[in-house]
Specification:
3-stranded antiparallel sheet; 3 helices
C-alpha cells in the first residue's frame, strides 16, 4: 500500500480559517458551543478535506483523521453538501 501524498498544508489552513470564522460568528450570535464549535455541528457531523470531499465519516489512524475518498486530512465543519462546500471555496479564492 502506498502512503498518501503530503497534504496541502495551505489548503488545510484555509479550510480551518473558514471553519473557525463560522464558529466565531455562531458564538457572537449566542449559539451554544462545545470545544469551540457550535453545538448544532455535532447534531449532523460533516468532515471536509482539501480536495472538496464532504462526508459524515472519516478514517481514523496513526496519521490522523483522513478522508475516505482520497486519504487527505479532514476537519470537522458545519453541515453542508459537497456542492455547497465547493461554492464556498470558490468564493474564498481557491
Amino acid at each position: 500500500m502506498t502512503a498518501p501524498a503530503a497534504p496541502d498544508v495551505g489548503e488545510i489552513a484555509r479550510i480551518r480559517a473558514w471553519r473557525d470564522s463560522l464558529a466565531r460568528e455562531a458564538k457572537l450570535r449566542g449559539e451554544e458551543m462545545f470545544m469551540g464549535k457550535p453545538d448544532a455541528w455535532y447534531d449532523d457531523l460533516h468532515w471536509f478535506c482539501p480536495n472538496g470531499h464532504v462526508s459524515g465519516r472519516f478514517l481514523s489512524g496513526d496519521r490522523g483523521d483522513r478522508c475516505l475518498a482520497c486519504l487527505e486530512p479532514v476537519l470537522m465543519g458545519p453541515p453542508m453538501t459537497e456542492r455547497q462546500f465547493a461554492a464556498v471555496t470558490e468564493r474564498s479564492g481557491k
